[in-house]
Amino acid sequence: xxxxxxxGGGLVxxxxxxxxxxxxxxRTFSNYAMGWFRQAPGKEREFVAAISxxxxxxxxxxxxxxxxTISRDNAKNTVYLQMNSLKPEDTAVYYCAAGGRPTxxxxxxxxxxxxxxxxxxx
Length: 122
Known about the structure:
- The protein is built from no helices and eleven strands.
- By secondary structure, the protein is mainly β.
- Strands 2, 4, 5, 6, 9, 10 and 11 form a seven-stranded mixed beta sheet that branches. A four-stranded antiparallel beta sheet has the order 1-3-8-7, with no helix packed on it.
- The mean pLDDT is 96.
């Protein structure tokens, strides 16, 4: 069982930056692909970014490409999401997830964190 804990969310003005972290309890963290998803009120959970187990491959939703960067440190069992040039439409609860491969599909991730709120004011 992998436990994931997100941190780093908060309130930021449009154009600002935040860095989310997701710490995993499992020593075999490096065996998992990791993903970031977000869910705004009244909307479905949507894919943001994913990274392979080695960190060599990354994938992004078109809406965040060029603004967000996913990375991981397997020695620290942590995955990050650097978010720059934030927009009000980025406001959501952000979740990290662990799975077998870096996919945009919600259902293919086995473990999820509790989420961290990101609010971007205009």
